[in-house]
Amino acid sequence: MIKTTTLLVLILSLLGTQKALSQFETTGSDDFGRIFDLTYDTTVPNKIYAVTLGNHIVVSEDNGTSWDLLYSLLVGQGASIRDLRLTPDATGLSFAAYAPGSTNSAIMIYDIQSETIIKNFPLPNQSSFAYPTSYRFYEGSTDVLLLDTNFPQGVSTEGKTYYTANGGDQWNEIYYTNNYDTVFINDVAINPADPNTLYLSRGNGSTDVDGGLFISNDAGQTWTETLEGIILDPITFNPEDAQHFWVGTGISFGATEENLYVSEDGGSTFSTADISWTEGILNSINVITYNEANPSQLIVLEENEIAISEDGGTTWQNIVYPDENPESYYYGLNASYNPQNSEEILISANYIPLVSSDGGVTLSWLKSPYFVSTGTMDLFRNETETHLYYGVQFGFVHRDVSTGVDTPYDIVPLNIFSNNPGQTQYADKQTAGRVYTFTSSFLGSNLMLSNDHGATKIQLENIFTNFFTAVASFPESPDKILTAFAGFQPSETKLQHIDFSDVNNIVITDLVLPELDIINAISIDGSGKIVLPIGISVYTSEDEGATWTNSSTGLEVLTANDLIFDIQRDPLNSSNYALASSKGIFISEDGGENWERKTTSLVYTVAFSTETEGAMAAATYSSQFSEYALHYSTDGGENWDTLTNTELLGIAANNTEFYFDETSVRAYIGSYDVGLVEYTIDLTTLNNEDFTNTEASFIMYPNPASDQVSIQLKNESIHTVTLFSVTGEKVMELRSINTLNISELAQGIYVVRVTTDSNKTYFKKLLVH
């Protein structure tokens, strides 16, 4: 079953009364979902929190059957959320915000009730581009935090550990790798009954000294060492006895005998658990977790085995997973017991999330729609069929849009790694079911043709090149195509004419280009006219590429550092073309001969509506220079509105396809961590919204307003209405009402959030004057 997350956002144009109603959904196949740090809420039954491979926290209210996006971390490109856990009082979620190569890394606390970040601990050494490696809050106060960090130093890495007792106002550096034989810290802990008693488990260093457990009784001013020379990692306390804790050995590659150590006197003495570990590659204990609701239950996650105790660690059952199966258990990362059912355990593993209903003895895959969308995306549409092809795990999924059925092809198992960029696939725009796929290797690259969405293939070309960048078929001769290939240098660009009308005698012709630079798109109209962007120039040909005419008038602003990324012809007016470039969108109204610049910022793809004249859409992808954004126009590209990355919930992506109907455009987005996203923008201009428009599910009027605002939902009942200021502060919350008294609000823009009884959520912007 495909799960969806729906978020409706109304963008109010301050230039007039135009409104764009937008819908955000995650609709990718749940056969590829990868979420981590799965954690049960201790007060709400069957509520689970988890993190994606990127910058999102997700939540399930039904024990993992369906999922919603809960929180987006917006601290720059490449940011991710790690080490998610409940705060000691269970009212919030703490996590490490990791922003590589920046000074934005921090430890944060998200308050579940208010749905806001209530505490932010910037790293004390953030100017060194540090990042958090482990952290722990004191059980009695989230003002007390023990934090380990690593940071680059030249070509090497160093580590520093800090302690604060006053919410980060003052930090004490209590450990520095260079002062302790360059030994790094693997895990940190604070004694649950004493904020001044700290524990550091040590790993490897660059000298002959490794391992050991450091214990301090004075908040890190002085240390004593025990378990000397033993490489250690996870530390876990008995929730009923602060003197009773466990420590597991870490990755040592044979330098340390694998053991699970237990102390019942605060670390003065230790004994080992009676567990016979099997031989693996890393032989590391990764996680030790108590069932807080029943502390007699413990679970230990090792590289290739799980150890379970039902009597507080006196006896153990060991379940071994001898093979590295990417669809089963391998290298556990986190475990969480269901407070309502002690036999139910969530396990985050290296490849997939797992759930057990028998105390950890057997496991099954807990699925979700959140994954990394790799490769390219393409869309085919005609009068009767619509097919979407989106990348995942170096292969792709074909979706029959009319039925919603997803079929995967060429999927690579998660434990197979390759330096190759993966597979590229494009849908033919003329022939339903026809897909071109391209894979590269040192032995040559293969361009394949499928006429059944990818189920079977024939080879069109074997070529020594790295990338397949564009393809287009001739409308009057659909078995003839132009294909563009690229290498790592502009001189490696190739354009080929391929005729496969006789698949037993495929004719390939290398075309002579007027210049050599990357080709990112090809447009061929019904007369056979080719419009071809090469680097920063546009060329046209009327003789299938035998001769070329430079048609770059108006593009002079583009320089050698720029690039044209896309070019499209208006299906409703053959004289109109649009191109997307590093310096914005350009429009031609004379068949691609002359161009006029309409926007100035980086745009990667652009599209004309197939249904409504003047409607257009475009996207800016995630890159070193840009955040993902959507753009739309209703007047042929003269004016554009933008949905920013914040309004798009902080997603990152590098591919987008657009599907237009008469009143809206649906953007299919292959995101980096929440899978396939569909974002629908209503392009209609509504001066007086009413239910005669079947798309109007949420009506709020009048808007702008000064005294009262009425809210109506189509076929829905209102549960909660919440108003937020533009800074995110909650200013009003009411239940089961449809009229808001706003007479006491200051003038300005507010966000109105409406939650329905069926748990749908709608947003609109309200202008109070």
From TrEMBL:
**Limits of the Sortilin N-terminal domain:** 213-331, 537-645
InterPro entries, alphabetically?
Secre_tail, Sortilin_N, VPS10-sortilin, WD40/YVTN_repeat-like_dom_sf
Q: Where is the Secretion system C-terminal sorting domain?
A: 700-768
Entry keyword annotation includes Repeat: yes
Q: Where is the signal peptide?
A: 1-22
PANTHER family listed in its UniProt record: SORTILIN RELATED, SORTILIN-RELATED RECEPTOR
* Name of the protein: Secretion system C-terminal sorting domain-containing protein
Organism, by scientific name, is Cochleicola gelatinilyticus
Taxonomy of origin reads:
Bacteria, Pseudomonadati, Bacteroidota, Flavobacteriia, Flavobacteriales
